[in-house]
Amino acid sequence: MRKLTVLIFLLIGLILIVGCNKETSEFEKTDSSETKKETKLYEEKIKELEEQNNEYKILNSQLEEESDSYKNFAKETIKHLDDDEILELAKNEFRYKIEIDGKPIIDNKDIEFNNSNFKISIIEEQSIVSSTIDPWFEKGSLDGEYQDHLEIIGIEPININSTDGTIVTGFIYEFKDIPENINFKLKLSNQLKERIGLKNSIINIHVK
To answer: CA torsion sign, 152 to 157 to 159 to 165?
Structure first.
């Protein structure tokens, strides 16, 4: 009887060992399969990024060639222009806009909004090649400083910041907790008005 009991325990132990080994083997197979799938996904992603990088290099090379071509064309062109013609050409290398919370003002219509916190920006976008062609092109920008060309009448900003990039620069007025039902005005210089393409220099704004 004792021998039979020992034999039964040995058989049970053997079954458990075999079962555990089988589960371990299945787990290893599953784990190996998942690892292979993940490795394949990573390899495909790396290949995709390499292809995108090659496309970017080709596009960048094309843009550089176009930029060089434009520079050479402009240099040759200005040799045949008088000072007034060069100045007019230089002005076209600068774009100006006024934005309220990122929305550009495109006409003289009265503006209404109900946001008591907002920003007003005057932004200059310069051609990427204008400053490398001829010193004359620097004369295409607005005279003086940005603040000389925009006056805000009726409210005071809590902060004034400037941004200075290679191509895009700007002057930003920040307003906070402006009372409801208040009116104020933007007064533009004649130069800025003409550059933006507005009919007159005054823009009326109402905070609802």
So the answer is: negative
